[in-house]
Every structure is written in structure tokens, then in C-alpha cells.
Design a protein that fits this description.
Keywords: RNA-binding. By secondary structure, the protein is an alpha+beta fold. The chain contains five helices and 14 strands. It binds one DNA strand through strand 8 and strand 10.
DNA sequence: AGCACA
């Protein structure tokens, strides 16, 4: 690899009170992610994120540029002028996709103890059971210029006509926080809605699976947008959320702030427990 | 680009 190649993404547009860990958690599931850090230049937050190479860095830019970070802020992503310097303590923030460090100074501790990511992402051969479903063949850049504000429900477009529910379950149902999905065979196009327990979990999938090329894909990768309405809800004539499926409170997933990214559930345990309070900003 | 619904 060309050591001079710029593989660092420069991100601005964060709200004043953003935390570095919000940056880390926003990006850590992207292919090629290695590390990220937040700098503050006279009160303005500036994010830097290192990827394995220029290609994965550009893919990250494509999927996060103009991303609506919260109600009032939109992120600007571009290639940095020069690569960021990785401090030793960045190791704890490393993603699981990153190339292992040459001299392996990080092997003394487990960078990512949570075994919640799909096994097909695990770089270690010993950790990859043969029975795991195959992941996406590849990722392509998809245009996603008209996305909506973050929502706990994802809208999946650009699906091939032959896409199956199990194919979608393999990719979306294995992600932390998964609740349910619905495949929709329209006359003109096939779409899918995927619900997660919280916005943070949906945001992680929105970023990590953007442009995934499925076995059935015949027109490039899938396009992932945040749904206009949370699963099980619609808007009434006054524009307020109305529950259309019993068991979900009004409006909670859209008013929840896009912070506190820790997914609270593991695959298969996505359904909110009875009486559990709604997340509060 | 297409936003469904016990």
C-alpha cells in the first residue's frame, strides 16, 4: 500500500456538545475503519477518522456526507489533507475491520469484547463457523441524497426483484438491536422496512450496510434510508404519530436524541420488554 | 425512486 495515500476522513458539522465516543460509535462499523478522534478547534468539533485505505475512506465519505446527525445538524465529510496520527490509546477505539497493527502492540487486550457483530466480519479464521450466512458480496456506492432524519426504522431500496426475506434477515436480522422487518413487493419496486430498538442501532446499520450487494442484487448495492415513520406508526392529519400496531408509545423513537449510541440488545432479543421505560434524550 | 402497517 502507498504509505502516502490519504485514508483519513475529515468531518465537520457536529453540534457543540458532541462527544468523541459519538464519533467513534458512528463510524466503527464501516468497512475499513481503524480509528477516529475528535478535535476541538476554537469551540468547533472536528472529527478525524482513519480507514485502511483511500477506497474505504471514500466509501465512508459517501455514506456519511450530508448525514443528518441530529435534528439540526448535518455532517460534512471530506478527505483530510493528511493522515491522522494514531496515538497508542486509540487502540481501544479501533474497529474490528481495521488491519492489525504491524508489531501487534494491541494484542494484550481485547479491543471489542462484545460478540455482537455478524461473524462474517470477524477477521480471525478461528472465530468463523462454517454455518454462518454469507455476508454481502461487496459494497457499492449508492446515491442517497434524499435521506430522512435518523429513525429507529430503516427503509431499504434498490433491491432486486428476486430478493428473499431470508436474504434480508441474514443481513439485517443479525445486527444488534434488531426487532423485525417487512418485505414489501410493490408493483414498481421491492422495498423493505427494518425496525431496531433504538435510533443508535439503526444508525450503525445505516452506515455499515449502506450499498451492500446482495446475492439477488442486479442494479448495484442496496440503498438504506431512515424511514419517514417508525415501524408500527403513521402520522395522522395533524402530523402527530399514531400507533398502528399495539404496544408502542407515541413518537418516542423520532424525538430521541441521536446520542448515547450503545446498542442495548443483542440479535434475537430485540423486542422491548413489557414495562421498560422509553429511552430519554 | 419507490415509505408499508394489526
Amino acid at each position: 500500500m502507498n504509505p502516502d495515500e490519504v485514508r483519513t476522513v475529515f468531518i465537520t458539522g457536529f453540534p457543540q456538545d458532541v462527544k468523541e465516543r459519538e464519533l467513534n460509535n458512528l463510524l466503527r462499523f464501516l468497512p475499513g475503519y481503524e480509528a477516529s478522534q475528535m478535535h476541538w478547534k476554537n469551540g468547533q468539533a472536528q472529527g478525524f477518522a482513519l480507514f485502511s485505505n483511500g477506497a474505504t475512506a471514500r466509501t465512508a465519505i459517501d455514506s456519511s456526507h450530508n448525514l443528518t446527525f441530529d435534528e439540526t445538524t448535518t455532517l460534512r465529510c471530506e478527505l483530510a489533507r493528511k493522515n491522522m496520527y494514531i496515538k497508542d490509546d486509540q487502540a481501544a477505539k479501533r474497529g474490528r475491520y481495521g488491519a492489525e497493527p504491524q508489531a501487534a502492540p494491541y494484542t494484550a487486550y481485547a479491543p471489542n469484547p462484545a460478540p455482537q457483530q455478524p461473524a462474517y466480519y470477524q477477521p480471525s479464521p478461528v472465530a468463523a463457523p462454517a454455518a454462518m450466512p454469507a455476508g454481502p458480496r461487496a459494497y457499492t456506492n449508492v446515491s442517497n441524497t434524499k435521506d430522512n432524519p435518523p429513525c429507529n426504522t430503516l427503509f431499504i431500496g434498490n433491491l432486486g426483484d428476486t430478493v428473499s426475506e431470508s436474504e434480508l434477515r441474514n443481513i439485517f436480522g443479525t445486527q444488534p438491536g434488531f426487532c423485525q422487518l417487512k418485505l414489501n413487493r410493490g408493483l414498481k419496486s421491492v422495498t423493505c422496512f427494518v425496525e431496531y430498538t433504538d435510533i443508535a442501532s439503526a444508525m450503525a446499520v445505516h452506515a455499515s450496510q449502506q450499498g451492500a450487494v446482495l446475492t439477488s442484487s442486479d442494479r448495484g448495492g442496496i440503498r438504506i434510508q431512515f424511514s419517514k415513520n417508525p415501524y408500527g406508526k403513521k402520522r395522522d392529519m395533524a402530523g402527530n404519530y399514531v400507533t398502528t400496531i399495539p404496544g408502542q408509545g407515541p413518537g418516542d423513537y423520532m424525538s430521541q436524541a441521536a446520542s448515547g449510541y450503545e446498542p442495548t440488545t443483542v440479535p434475537g432479543e430485540g423486542v422491548k420488554a413489557e414495562g421498560e421505560p422509553d429511552p430519554v434524550a
